[in-house]
Amino acid sequence: MELIEKYLTGYELDFLIKLGLSLFGGIVLGVEREARGKFAGISTQTLVISGAMMFTFISQVISPESPGRVAAQIVSGIGFLGGGIILKGEGGVISNVTSAATIWFAASIGMAIGFGWYIIAVIAILYAAAIPRLPSIRERRRNREENNNQNGA
Prior knowledge:
76% helix
């Protein structure tokens, strides 16, 4: 019994709750990305949210008076990760910008969970899953042109 108590910190239950919510968020965002055939699916989203949560959780436990220092590093580190998946393809077409933005936003969700802001995190998860589903102006224009071409041909 002493051996077990030696390794318990008292934060385990709180951590498991945060990790579970991180998993939920990663699955919701990842399923949305994978359903659209995009990069940064379930594994990526889950690991980004969970990683940001862990850094936030640990910084808050270790340095409760200034956890913001680690938060600033999370933002810049995730920006680097997101920037790495943006590609410029043939014809100068840039792709994966939304996937990069989703990764960046996922980190903010992880930070919210790390700070214990569960309701805000759930709202942000639903928001992040819904936004890419909104049709873009470009898609509407392309669909309208395709319909005009089919009706006029």
